[in-house]
Design brief:
Catalyzes the conversion of uracil and 5-phospho-alpha-D-ribose 1-diphosphate (PRPP) to UMP and diphosphate. One of its GO terms (molecular function) is GTP binding. Its cofactor is Mg(2+). It comes from Tamilnaduibacter salinus. The protein has 212 residues and is an alpha/beta fold. It has one domain: 3-Layer(aba) Sandwich (Rossmann fold), CATH 3.40.50.2020. Helix content is 31%, strand content 33%. Strands 1, 4, 5, 6, 7, 8, 9, 10 and 11 form a 9-stranded mixed sheet that branches. α2 crosses α3. The chain starts with a strand and ends in a 7-residue tail after the last helix. The relative contact order is 0.17. The structure holds 1-O-pyrophosphono-5-O-phosphono-alpha-D-ribofuranose, uracil (URA) and magnesium ion. Uracil binds next to α6.
C-alpha cells in the first residue's frame, strides 16, 4: 500500500533518456516497455511461492512456483498500451482488461469510454498500467470501476507520477499500491507533470504533440 518510487539505476538511466525533447517514437516506446518490465519485477516481489517436485535431469527435484495469484493487467487507453508488453514479458499468461479514459484538457476531468474487463475479478490481482499519473483523475476513475466489478487487490504501475495525483489517489483508495519510476516535482497550470515526459500518448502513438 502507498506509493513506491523504484529508484533502480537502470530505471533512472532509462527515464533520463525518455525525458529528452528530441526522442523518437521508436525509442520512447522501447524505453517505456523496458522500464515497465523493471517496475513489474519490483511490484511482484511479494508474490508467494509453493514447493513442487518435478522430474529433473538427475531425478526428482524440488522447485518453486508462483501460487494462486491470478493477475489481470489493466492498460488505460491509450497511453497504457505502451506499457502492456512490458508486463506481459514477465507474466505472459496474464489476462488483459482494457479501460479507456480520456481527460478533458480544459476541466482535467477524466471520463470512461471503454470498459472491457475479464471475469473473476474478485480472484485476480489487477495491475493497472498508465505512464502518467497527473491529477489522478484517470487512475481514480479506473480503480472505482474495477472495485465496482469486484476487484479487491489493485496495484498501479506508472512511469511518472505527480505528488498531487498520488495524494489524491491514495486519499480515495488507501488500499492501492502505486509503483512509479519517478515522483516528479509538480503539475503545471495545464495539468501536465513537470519535469515529466510531455504527452505520453502522443509520443507512444506518434500523433501530434499538444502545446502543453
Ligand atoms: O492523472 P490525470 O490528470 O487523469 O492524467 C493522466 C492521464 O492523461 C493521459 O491520458 P489522456 O487523457 O491524454 O489520453 P491518451 O492516453 O489517449 O493520450 C495519461 O495517459 C493518463 O491516462
Ligand atoms: O504530463 C502529462 C499529464 C497528462 N498526460 C500526459 O500524457 N502527460
Ligand atoms: Mg494524451
Amino acid at each position: 500500500m502507498g506509493a513506491h518510487e523504484v529508484r533502480h539505476p537502470l530505471i533512472r538511466h532509462k527515464l533520463g533518456l525518455m525525458r529528452r525533447s528530441d526522442i523518437s517514437t521508436k525509442n520512447f516506446r522501447e524505453l517505456a516497455q523496458e522500464i515497465t518490465t523493471l517496475l513489474t519485477y519490483e511490484a511482484t516481489k511479494d508474490f508467494t511461492l509453493e514447493p513442487q517436485t518435478i522430474e529433473g535431469w538427475a531425478g526428482p527435484v524440488e522447485v518453486e512456483s508462483v501460487t494462486g495469484k491470478k493477475v489481470t493487467i489493466v492498460p488505460i487507453l491509450r497511453a497504457g498500451l505502451g506499457m502492456l508488453e512490458g508486463v506481459l514479458d514477465l507474466m505472459p499468461v496474464a489476462r488483459v482488461s482494457v479501460v479507456g479514459q480520456v481527460r478533458d484538457e480544459d476541466t482535467l476531468e477524466a471520463s470512461t469510454y471503454l470498459e472491457k474487463l475479464v471475469g473473476e475479478l474478485d480472484q485476480r490481482m489487477a495491475m493497472i498500467v498508465d505512464p502518467m499519473l497527473a491529477t489522478g483523475g484517470s487512475m481514480i476513475s479506473t480503480i472505482d470501476l474495477l472495485k465496482k466489478a469486484g476487484s479487491t487487490e489493485i496495484r498501479a504501475l506508472t512511469l511518472v507520477a505527480a505528488p498531487e495525483g498520488i495524494e489524491r489517489v491514495l486519499a480515495a483508495h488507501p488500499d492501492v499500491s502505486i509503483y512509479t519510476a519517478s515522483i516528479d516535482d509538480r503539475l503545471n497550470e495545464k495539468g501536465y507533470i513537470l519535469p515529466g515526459l510531455g504527452d505520453a500518448g502522443d509520443k507512444i502513438f506518434g500523433t501530434k504533440q499538444k502545446d502543453n
